[in-house]
TrEMBL record:
Similarity-based family: Belongs to the sulfatase family.
Superkingdom of the organism of origin: Eukaryota
Limits of the Sulfatase N-terminal domain: 50-361
Species classification: Eukaryota, Metazoa, Chordata, Craniata, Vertebrata
Keywords: Calcium, Glycoprotein, Hydrolase, Metal-binding
Designated name of the protein: ARSI Arylsulfatase
InterPro entries, per database record: Alkaline_phosphatase_core_sf, ARSB, Sulfatase_CS, Sulfatase_N
PROSITE patterns: SULFATASE_1 (PS00523), SULFATASE_2 (PS00149)
Pfam families: Sulfatase
Amino acid sequence: MAVYALTGFSLVSLLSFGYLSWDWMKPSLVADVPTDPMEKSPPPTFSRPPHIIFILTDDQGYHDVGYHGSDIQTPTLDRLAAEGVKLENYYIQPICTPSRSQLITGRYQIHTGLQHSIIRPRQPNCLPLDQVTLPQKLQEAGYSTHMVGKWHLGFYKKECLPTRRGFDTFLGSLTGNVDYYTYDNCDGPGVCGYDLHEGEDVAWDQSGKYSTFLYAQRVSKILASHSPKEPIFIYVAFQAVHTPLQSPKEYIYRYRSMGNVARRKYAAMVTCMDEAVKNITWALKKYGYYDNSVIVFSTDNGGQTFSGGSNWPLRGRKGTYWEGGVRGIGFVHSPLIKRKRRTSWALVHITDWYPTLVSLARGNLSNVPGLDGYNVWPAISEGKESPRTEILHNIDPLYNHAKYGSLEDGFGIWNTAVQASIRVGEWKLLTGDPGYSDWIPPQTLTNFPGSWWNLERLTDGLRKSVWLFNITADPYERYDLSDQRPDVVRTLLMRLVHYNRTAIPVRYPAENPRAHPDFNGGAWGPWASEDDGEEWEGGGEPLKSRNKKKKCKICKLRSFFRKLNTRLMSNRI
């Protein structure tokens, strides 16, 4: 009991008196009136379009970078951030596909139909083909475009592949997670396949190479073979530090004193990724790109706390709409920044990179109406106010409805059982079930025997469906003000109603047995004919087949796979 009491006191003390070295109370730099995302900003003053390197890490927790006080060594990220602009009011999405789709399209997921969950390997689904992507806009501006790493935006048709969505070259995985060495991915018992692709072909010959190293080496090769006189865009979507927790032994040895095994392996993966970023930066300098380059670093969602990640001192984890799920690590490093070596509190969202980077590239945004992102380069480079005043974190009509939510609790204008979250100015509203709501210090990540840190859930979350926080004054989300400020709750609910009117139907089709890797040479890849129509309709319900004979064939295939899985499981046992 003494241990529990001491640790509990430490948590309360840290939350009460402040844990971080920077000023959480500093107000965000936002305007009072929403700005038109298409409003033109002054063109950049540099002479040539810059080379753009966008680095996205996977499942890296908010606490898991050196300059956030972590016990994990990230000297490269620390140096790049210190010499550039740290984004400390930067938001992403709580899971993989939504963040990536919003980066690539500049649109909220309610405007692409991807507002529920992720795109799974066997779903006939991908980033909507009518969306003009970021790399396509950069190609129009004269850029060479390359992607290295994790796609996770669907692949059931060839039209969905990165090389058909604006990238000149691609080396990486199409699914959500693979083995770091063998590149195998199992989507259920017996449904396993290889997932590493070079362009539109399976890269069998690369098996055995640790993905973090492989991807950094590919970036160096791209830079070596390209001319720095011509603009280039490289999207580096590291698999790290998503599970499985795998790292070369020499990196794990550095953290041998860590008692938590998951944290030890995770830390090794973060440090390994940091060194990969170092090698990429070195290549930019070696081959003559650096002086005219912009490096953007971003995480894709909060850390997964039971897999080694830490979002301390924020509340929640990956997959939740608490700050621990949606506040990201972000910074920009560039010789072209006018006001370097500072921390920015400008409100920035992952959708903002689309118009910001296209504007830097001197591209044309007039033919892509309806963007949800803003050009935030003046806020980043010059310290001006951000044009962004609010963020729709999401509205997910398919997520499990909260037991105690109702239209009545939403003033008759919003059903609070629906999972949704929005930030307007300093205020943040959550409705429905926001997800796992605790604060988890790094040292208690897994196998901790106490339950003292469940206090907030036990006393506050059992019969609620509405939460309101002043995020500027209360970044840890400790003080729910929904009862004290019903006027603010109502105002933010009206904003949710406004956004919901613009939402398109959810794209979340049923899995299709034709996607099984055994039908595709043992690898994950496109399985639908280019002539196949869309196999989904609004609300996530699969379209009923008009062809009874075709429907019968699908039934037989499903029966076949049930028998196949049974045999495979029997052989394993």
